Amino acid sequence: MTANWLHHLIVAPIVLPLLAGAFVLLFDERRRVLKATISLASAVLLLGVAVTLMSVADAAAPAADVYLLGNWPAPFGIVLVLDRLSALMLVLTSILAIASLVFATARWQRAGPHFHTIFQILLMGLNGAFLTGDLFNLFVFFEVTLAASYGLVLHGSGPLRVKAGLHYIAVNLAASSLFLIGVSLLYGVTGTLNMADLAQRIPMIAPEDRMLLEAGAAILGVAFLVKAGMWPLSFWLPPAYSAAAAPVAAIFAILSKVGIYILLRLSLLFFGNGAGASSGFGNEWLLMGGMATMTFGLIGVLASQAMGRLAGYSVLVSSGTLLAAIGMGNAGITGGALFYMVSSTLTISAFFLLIELVERGQDTAANVLAVTMEAYGDEYEDAVDEEVGLAIPGTLAILGACFAICGILLTGLPPFSGFVAKFLLIASIFNPAGLGDPAPISATSWILVALIVLSGLAAMIAMTRTGIRTFWASLEGKVPRVLVIELVPVVGLLLLCLVLTIQAGPAMRYMQATAQSLHAPQDYIRSVLAAPRVRPEGEASR
Amino acid sequence: MELVLSLAIGIMTASGIWLLLRPRTFQVIIGLSLISYAVNLFIFSMGRLRMNATPVLTSAGVGEPALYDDPLPQALVLTAIVIGFAMTALFLVVLLASRGLTGTDHVDGRERR
After folding, report:
1. How far apart are CA A516 and CA A284, in angstroms?
2. pLDDT (tens digit per residue) in A303-331
3. Contact flag B72-A187 (C-beta cutoff 8 Å)
4. Domains, chain B, ranges and CATH?
5. Do residues B18 and B34 make contact, with C-beta atoms less than 8 angstroms apart?
C-alpha cells in the first residue's frame, strides 16, 4: 500500500504548485501574509516530496520509477519518469524556491501583482520539465516555465526590466521555434516522441535518414543551449539576470540549469555508447562551446563593474564548465559536474540575494526601487516605508562575511563546496579511467583544466575588487537596513554549501551513481517501455 | 504540393527572420508570428503530406493504418498554435509597456543617434 502511495507521489511536484498557484489567485492582492504563507507552505511541502522522491529513486535504481499518466503503455501515452537525476533537480529547485520566497516576503512580493501565482507556475513548469519522459510534453513544460519567467523577469517593472525583459522574451520565443522544429524533425524521422523509445530507435535509423535525424537533434540542442547560455547564444543572459528582482534572479539560477539538465539527459540517452553510428554526436560541440563560454564568462567577470553583472557572468562560467564537462562524455567527469552544478547553483542563488542587500546601502539600488514604485503607481506606494521586522546590528559585518564566503565558493577555494566540486572535476578530467590509470592527458583536458583554474582566478580578482570597494572603502552610502528574514535565506544557502562540503562523501556517491546510470541508459529505457499498466477493477489479467 | 508547401515555409521563415532582426518592436512581433506560422506548417508536414485521408478513425477502416493520416502532428500543431498565440499576446503587452515607459518603439528603448 505504501509503495503504491509513494508511486503516485511523482505527480505531486507538478500538481501541488499548480493548485497552490491557482488557490493564491483567489485572494485579494492586499492579503499578502496569507498569500505568502500558502506559497511558502507549498514550497516546503515540495521540498518534503522531493526528498522523499529522492529516496524512492535511489531505492528503485538502476531502474527508473515510471508513472503512466493516462494509463496507456509507454510509447503511446505520456509518461513521467523519476530517476536519480530528476530527483536531484527537484530537490535543488525546491531549496531555491524556499530561499527566494522567504526573501521575497520581506519586500519584493509587494513590487507587483500576482508574484506568488507566477512563482508557483514557474515551479510547476520546472518540476514538469525535470520529470517528463516525452519530448513534446517537455516542450509544454518548457513553455510553462518560460511564460512564468517572462512574468517574473518583469516583476517590479521599470524601464530597465522592461527592456531586458523584451530582449529575453524575443530570444526565448525564437529559441522555442527552434525547439519545435527539432522535435518535429525527430518525429518525422523516428515516428515517436517518447525519449526512451527514441533512444531505442536511433541506432536502427537508416543511413540516408541519419543526416536528418542529426540535424533535428542539433536544432533541438541549439534551443537548449540558448537556455543554458552557451556562447555565442548567451548575450541576453547577464542583462536579464541582473535586471531581474533579487528573489527572481535567485530562482533563475536553476532556470539556466534546465537547459543543462536536458542536454545531459538527451545527449546521453540518444547519442550514448549504444547509439551506433551517431554515438557521441555533438560532444565536441558541447566541449568547444563550453570552453568558449567559460572564456567569455571569465572575461565578463573581470570586466563587470556592477555586482549584478558579475553574478550574471558567473552563471555563464558555471554553464560553460558544465557544458564542457558533459562534452567530455565520461561517467567520472559527469559525476563531478553534477556536484559542481549543485554547489554552483546554490552559490549563485545566494549571491544574487546578497547583491540586493549589499547594494541597498548604495544609491543605485535605492534608485531602482524608487523607479519601480513610481512606475507601478500609487496603489502600492505605501510599500516602501512599511518596513516591519527586525533590523539587525552589525549588518555590514554579516553581509561582508557572506560576501567573502560567496567569493570563496565562486573561486573554488577550500574549505567550501566550490573547492570540492572543482577538485572532483579536475581530478576526473586528469584520470578519466579512474585513479591510478597512467593514460596520457590530452591537450583538450589541459585546456579545460586551465580554464577551470583561470575562471576561479578571475572570480577571485573580481570578488576581491568588488568586496574592497563595497565594504572597506565605502565612502558614500550608508549602512543598509537589512531585515533578519532577508538574511536567513542567504545564510541558509551558504550553510547548505558547507553541509555539502562536510557530507561530500555521501553526496558524491549519489552523484557518481547518477552519472553511472546516465551513461548506461539501458535500464532507463527498459523501465519506461516495460512499465506495467494499472488494471482497472474487474479486468481479467491476460 | 510539396514544392508549394516548402516554398511557403521557406519564404515565411526568411521574412520572419529578417523582421526579427529589425529595430522596431512591431517588426519583431510580426517576425515572431511569421516564424511561428512557418514552424506550425513544418510540424504539420512532418506527418507526411496526404490528400483525402482523415486523421480520425472511422468505423469502415479500423485496423488499416494506410487509410489514415498521422493524427499526432496535427495534435502537436494545435498545442503549438495555442502556446504561440499566448506568447504573442504576452509579447504585445511587454511591447506596449516598453513603448509607454520609454516613449519609443525601438527594441533598445532609445533611438540610435
Report:
1. 21
2. 888 888 888 999 999 999 999 988 887 88
3. yes
4. 2-49+69-102 (1.10.287)
5. no
